[in-house]
């Protein structure tokens, strides 16, 4: 019992150490669990929401639409739970300019169901539900009416219609009808689209660089009033996928099995079948057109023949009359007998030659008959020409049918193709990666501080330990005094850390997340396993340090332990050997230098602890600086152009004319921009970048005219880069990189994520879905977006070569020489504000699909989530620095009580004792700061390199002000600690402190 009482008394006496260990454990557990819990809560709530709304696992799109046969084939795929055929239509309307929207049919099979936020779901024809973004932008409300206009058919299909009705084929519908929605609409509800959780009322502008929407808004309509048998897409739910978390690899593997099956058999078969349907439909229309034309020509020929027969009868009557009159005249001039015979005779018979001669003579003599004959001949000639022309047209259509209807292509996509889903996932993954890295530093600092505190605690009790061991207590029993002390401190600190980690920090993170995304049903949850392991990790670390301290002391004999520890033997420090310097240092300065450098363990612990805390602060500020400068570097440094304008292929000429007529452009470059993919297949030969690397990245494929390859460097800063250390990259000289016909230039943001380097082979997919293997000639410095630059000649070589996949779908080489330059990079005159206004005005023009102002992008780029997490990390690192300095200062004082008492006996005033002790701590703190600043740059570089996010590359940037802030903050914490240490120094009693230990 006495042993226990003494142990409790010892614990109460060491309450400062107890608080220090508990606080360090609290901060460490909070960091370890807090960021993880916040991301996990967001993942789980979003996954529940997706399951409740039936967000599709797989989506199938087709360049020719989907038929009932396609839907039936998808239902038969092994692993498919549900298939929902969807119809949609793009419409336009006037809302402070021309705006576009997608009319989306609400599925009847429970897939992709919008989440009702206000009002009710539409049920009747003409009723729609809109998103909150539309309500905010338009100012409309429930009950408002809206009139929309369906967008016209795409130009690539309209030219297949024959104006004569000979061929009405259309590559997108065949015998099916395209979807059609009502145009007079009434808003009855406000909903959340499960495919896009972005918060329209939030403060984040991050969608400015990651938005993939092709229209401005989405309207949801019921099936009532929707016509058309052609489907724009098919959405699928996969068996067993709902049981997995949508953000886990197990979910991706489950879905991938189904997508592989679709790609392997169904896709190829249905592409061929669908194209054959279109060919059959086209052939049928040609046959029907030929039959209809033959019938019309036959009717026209019958009419001409009837008119010609009537005309001939009239001429023959005149011929007969003239022949009879001639015979009567001859009879009057003959004999009487001949007259009597002639009177009883009939009209004389004429041979055919004579009759034909008389017909021509009669027709020539009569203007009316001549005109009638000419009209008949002209009608016959026109009919013959029409016959020949129609037959030639039909034969041409028959010959061109196979080439006019391109190969049908399916696009099988999973949730990763949804811009809102991938943005949320990448944001949370990046934050979670930070949450996995920072606790390591906290754990190391906790172990160091625990070792310092417990080693001093054990050393103070060495005589008592020797007494207990001498009395027969086991070493384990004696050590349990300190092990239980450390364990209790860890458990209390860890318990409080769990409260902060599963309630406080997640609540903060989720407030920030909800400013960027809408997450219905979001709630905080506790993870017993992860929380227990978090505490256990720090318990093991701290107990290991305590055991080490106990073993170091208890391996001595009881007699040795009961005697006071012999002071260290005097020794010279290195500075003493530098006589010119040493001789000029005052007495107290020499004492301070000896105290700092003679006690190596205290030096290492203090400098190491302060350096670790300073490094955490610098690391957090480095990430903040890096993110803050991304927009400026990309849109003002790398992109030298001021405006990018994109149009449809059919409007490219009108777009360039419009921009040129405005007179704002000082220089420009016409390019072709397509959305595609860059894929690196896993391999071990190194041809694909890193050995074993794999992955895919959405890219912006930029084709440059062959005659203007050198002009690209005037619009985009071309600088070759190579992988570096500490989060840096080796950047070549500006202008040293040139685009040629030997390969493509890949953006650094995509190359870093996929492990691509100069000389790698990658697979490119262009805007038409055609794939080809390309060589990477260089990697260009690029931070936002994933641009891939290719010359016109190399583009044609890639996507028209026999080696390219799906080469039969490619354009002919003759066509490829005349690419449609559907985009323009331009430099503008005027201020940033005027450039932004001009880009907004261009978007209202019908020929412009997208206009982007670099000035606006540079000013509006934000990454609020990362900034909030960095602020949290810096605050926690500051708290850790305060605790570390407090622990080290108290340990320093407890080790030197007799020394301080001696100084007081020698006549030192309290202020002089404060200065004597605090000067050493400040010097050690400065040394820790000096070491921690570059260490923080190192850790920050490694962490930012680990943040591989879609379309982003973090080029580490640490501003001088950040170093100053980190240094000043650490020194401020050191001064704050002095306020707690000075009263302890004042309470040292010289008489009791200098009593002999024995």
Give an overview in words.
- The chain is 56% helix and 14% strand.
- The chain is of the alpha+beta class.
- The chain has a 6-stranded mixed barrel. Strands 2-11-1-12 form a 4-stranded antiparallel beta sheet, covered by helices on one side.
- Helix 7 runs antiparallel to helix 10 and helix 27 runs parallel beside helix 30.
- The longest helix has 84 residues, at 249-332.
- The chain is elongated and about 185 Å long.
- Residues 153-174, 203-213, 335-346, 682-693 and 801-817 have low confidence and may be disordered.
First-residue to last-residue Cα separation = 26 Å
Strand fraction band? 5-15%
Globular, elongated, flat, extended or rod-shaped: what is the shape? elongated
| Radius of gyration from the alpha-carbon trace, in angstroms | 44 Å
Averaged pLDDT, please?
Answer: 80
The overall strand count is 23
Question: How do the strands line up in the largest sheet?
Answer: 14-15-21-18-20-19
- The chain-level structural class is alpha+beta
Largest sheet report? 6 strands, mixed, barrel
Q: Uncertain segments of ≥5 residues (pLDDT<50)?
A: 153-174, 203-213, 335-346, 682-693, 801-817
Percent range of helical residues: 55-70%
Number of helices: 31
Write the layout of secondary structure elements.
Blueprint (H helix, E strand, L loop, with lengths): L1 H12 L1 H39 L4 E9 L1 H8 L4 E7 L1 E7 L3 E8 L9 E5 L7 E5 H7 L6 E3 L1 E2 L4 H4 L25 E9 L14 H4 L6 E5 L9 E8 L10 H84 L3 H8 L8 H14 L1 H38 L5 E5 L4 H42 L1 H9 L4 H40 L13 H27 L3 H5 L16 H4 L4 H12 L1 H29 L1 H9 L4 E4 L5 H11 L2 E16 L14 E10 L7 H4 L5 E3 L5 E3 L12 E4 H7 L6 E5 L5 E10 L6 E5 H9 L12 H4 L6 E6 L3 H12 L6 E4 H7 L3 H32 L1 H9 L4 H37 L13 H27 L3 H4 L5
Parallel strand pairs: 4-10, 6-9, 15-21, 18-20
Antiparallel strand pairs: 1-11, 1-12, 2-11, 3-4, 3-8, 5-9, 7-9, 13-22, 13-23, 14-15, 14-19, 14-22, 16-17, 18-21, 19-20
Helix pairs in contact: 2-11, 2-13, 2-14, 2-27, 3-7, 7-9, 7-10, 9-10, 11-14, 11-18, 11-27, 13-14, 13-27, 17-29, 18-27, 18-29, 18-30, 19-26, 27-30, 29-30
């Amino acid at each position: 019992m006495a042993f226990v009482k003494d142990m409790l008394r010892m614990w109460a006496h060491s309450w400062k150490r107890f608080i220090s260990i508990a606080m360090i454990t609290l901060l460490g557990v909070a960091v370890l669990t807090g960021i993880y819990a916040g991301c996990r809560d967001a993942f789980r709530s979003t996954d529940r929401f997706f399951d409740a709304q039936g967000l599709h696992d797989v989506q199938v799109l087709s360049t020719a639409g989907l038929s009932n046969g396609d839907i039936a084939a998808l239902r038969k795929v092994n692993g498919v739970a549900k298939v929902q055929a969807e119809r949609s239509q793009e419409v336009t309307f006037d809302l402070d300019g021309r705006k576009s929207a997608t009319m989306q049919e609400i599925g009847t099979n429970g897939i992709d169901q919008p989440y009702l936020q206000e009002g009710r779901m539409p049920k009747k024809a003409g009723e729609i539900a809109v998103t909150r973004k539309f309500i905010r932008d338009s100012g409309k409300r429930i009950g408002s009416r809206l009139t929309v206009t369906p967008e016209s058919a795409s130009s690539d299909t309209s030219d297949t219609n024959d104006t004569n009705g000979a061929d009405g084929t259309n590559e997108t519908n065949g015998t099916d009808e395209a979807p059609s929605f009502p145009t007079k609409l009434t808003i009855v509800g406000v909903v959340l689209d499960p495919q896009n959780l972005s918060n329209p009322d939030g403060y984040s502008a991050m969608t400015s660089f990651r938005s993939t929407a092709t229209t401005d808004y989405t309207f949801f309509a019921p099936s009532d009033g929707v016509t058309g048998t052609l489907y724009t897409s098919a959405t699928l739910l996969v068996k067993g996928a709902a049981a997995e978390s949508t953000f886990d690899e197990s979910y991706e593997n489950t879905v991938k099995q189904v997508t592989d099956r679709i790609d392997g058999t169904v896709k190829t078969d249905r592409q061929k079948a669908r194209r054959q349907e279109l060919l059959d439909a086209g052939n049928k229309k040609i046959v029907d057109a030929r039959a209809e034309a033959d019938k019309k020509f036959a009717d026209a020929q019958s009419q001409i023949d009837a008119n010609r027969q009537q005309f001939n009868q009239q001429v023959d009557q005149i011929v007969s009359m003239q022949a009879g009159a001639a015979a009567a005249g001859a009879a009057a001039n003959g004999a009487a007998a001949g007259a009597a015979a002639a009177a009883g005779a009939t009209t004389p018979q004429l041979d055919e030659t004579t009759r034909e001669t008389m017909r021509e003579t009669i027709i020539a003599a009569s203007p009316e008959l001549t005109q009638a004959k000419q009209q008949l001949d002209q009608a016959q000639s026109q009919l013959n020409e029409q016959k020949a022309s129609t037959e030639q047209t039909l034969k041409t259509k028959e010959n061109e049918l196979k080439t006019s209807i391109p190969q049908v292509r399916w696009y099988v996509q999973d949730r990763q193709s949804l811009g809102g889903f991938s943005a949320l996932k990448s944001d949370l993954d990046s934050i979670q990666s930070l949450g996995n890295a920072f606790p390591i530093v906290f754990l190391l600092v906790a172990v160091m501080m625990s070792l310092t505190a417990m080693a001093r605690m054990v050393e103070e009790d060495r005589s008592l330990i020797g007494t207990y061991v001498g009395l027969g207590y086991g070493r384990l029993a004696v050590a349990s005094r300190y092990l239980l002390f450390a364990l209790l401190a860890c458990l209390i600190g860890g318990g409080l850390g769990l409260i902060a980690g599963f309630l406080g920090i997640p609540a903060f993170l989720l407030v920030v997340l909800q400013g960027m995304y809408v997450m219905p049903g979001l709630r905080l949850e506790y993870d017993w396993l992860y929380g227990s392991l978090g505490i256990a990790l720090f318990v093991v670390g701290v107990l290991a340090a305590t055991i080490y301290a106990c073993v170091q002391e208890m391996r001595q004999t009881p007699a040795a332990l009961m005697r006071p520890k012999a002071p260290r033997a005097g020794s010279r420090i290195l500075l003493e050997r530098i006589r010119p310097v040493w001789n000029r240092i005052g007495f107290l300065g020499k004492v301070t230098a000896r105290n700092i450098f003679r006690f190596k363990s205290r030096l290492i612990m203090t400098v190491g602890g302060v350096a670790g805390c300073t490094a955490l602060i610098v690391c957090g500020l480095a990430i903040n600086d890096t993110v803050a400068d991304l927009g400026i570097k990309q849109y003002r440094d790398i992109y030298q152009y001021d405006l990018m304008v994109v149009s449809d292929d059919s409007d490219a000429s009108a777009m360039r004319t419009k921009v040129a007529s405005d007179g704002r452009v000082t220089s420009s470059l016409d390019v072709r921009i397509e959305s595609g993919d860059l894929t690196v297949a896993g391999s071990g030969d190194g041809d694909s970048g890193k050995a074993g690397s794999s992955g895919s990245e959405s890219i912006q494929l930029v084709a440059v005219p062959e005659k203007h390859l050198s002009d690209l460097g005037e619009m985009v800063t071309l600088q070759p880069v190579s992988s570096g250390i500490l989060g840096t990259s080796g950047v070549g000289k500006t202008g040293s990189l040139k685009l040629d016909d030997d390969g493509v230039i890949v953006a650094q943001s995509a190359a870093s994520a996929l492990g691509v380097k100069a000389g790698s082979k990658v697979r490119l997919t262009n805007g038409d879905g055609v794939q080809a293997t390309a060589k990477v000639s260089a990697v260009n410095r690029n931070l936002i977006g994933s641009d891939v630059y290719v010359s016109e000649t190399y583009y044609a070589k890639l996507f028209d070569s026999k080696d390219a996949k799906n080469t039969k779908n490619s354009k002919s080489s003759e066509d490829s020489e005349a690419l449609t330059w559907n985009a323009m990079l331009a430099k503008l005159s005027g201020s940033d504000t005027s450039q932004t206004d001009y880009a907004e005005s261009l978007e209202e023009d019908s020929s412009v699909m997208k206009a982007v102002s670099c000035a606006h992008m540079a000013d509006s780029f934000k990454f609020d989530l990362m900034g909030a997490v960095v602020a949290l990390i810096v605050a926690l690192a500051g708290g850790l620095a305060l605790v570390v300095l407090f622990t080290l200062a108290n340990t320093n004082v407890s080790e030197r009580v007799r020394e301080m008492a001696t100084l007081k006996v020698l006549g030192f005033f309290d202020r002089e004792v404060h200065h004597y002790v605090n000067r050493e701590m400040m010097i050690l703190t400065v040394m820790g700061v000096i070491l921690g600043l570059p260490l923080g740059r190192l850790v920050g570089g490694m962490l930012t390199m680990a943040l591989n996010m879609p379309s982003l590359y973090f080029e580490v940037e640490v501003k001088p002000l950040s170093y100053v802030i980190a240094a000043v903050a650490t020194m401020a914490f050191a001064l704050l600690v002095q306020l707690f240490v000075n009263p302890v120094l004042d309470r040292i009693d010289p008489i009791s402190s200098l009593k002999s230990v024995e």
